[in-house]
Amino acid sequence: MDDLAAKKCIPCNAKDLQPMTEETAHSLISKVEGWKLLNEGAVLKLNQSWKVKSFTKGLELFQLVAEVAEAEGHHPDLHLVGWNNVTIEIWTHAVGGLTENDFILAAKINGLPLHGLLRRKDILRH
Ligand SMILES: C[C@H](O)[C@H](O)[C@H]1CNC2=NC(N)=NC(=O)C2=N1
Questions:
Q1: Number of C-alpha atoms within 13 angstroms, CB side, residue 42?
Q2: Does residue 23 lie within any of the structural domains?
Q3: What GO MF annotations does this protein's record show (predicted)?
Q4: Position 2 in a domain
Q5: Does ligand 1 lie within 6 Å of residue 99's CB atom?
Q6: How many domains does the chain have?
Q7: 80-121 pLDDT, tens digit each
Q8: In CATH, what number is assigned to the domain containing residue 117?
Q9: Of 19, 34, 91, 102, whose CB count within 10 A is highest?
Q10: ipTM topping 0.90
Q11: Hey, which of 13, 44, 90, 101 would you mutate to test ligand 1's pocket, going by the most ligand atoms within 8 Å of its Cβ?
């Protein structure tokens, strides 16, 4: 699990794929900077929010994320709310929780050139 960004997601419909425990998720969260662990109705998810410069920049961010998601065959939940608030949630729908795929996708999103799309104040955080 060391260089998450260099790994490939495995198909989520693999028979033996199981959601990780909350304990494991807590031990891995520091490997994906900026991502938080959420527990929504007993379903663990990775979550990160950004403020973008404009609605259109939000859609550009989604496009960059979509290219990674399609390449990996692993897809996040994308939210663009109140014109410039982007939130991405990542979890493995097929298992109802987190798998290594989610951490791989989060690490790859962290490698995207998002700076030009984000509000100045937000860039300080990223
Ligand atoms: C066969 C293929 O792996 C599945 O349909 C994928 C597609 N992308 C997916 N993405 C996410 N986040 N969870 C899934 O369970 C999922 N299933």
A1: 1
A2: no
A3: 4-alpha-hydroxytetrahydrobiopterin dehydratase activity
A4: no
A5: no
A6: 1
A7: 999 999 999 999 999 999 999 999 999 999 999 999 999 987
A8: 3.30.1360.20
A9: 102
A10: yes
A11: 13
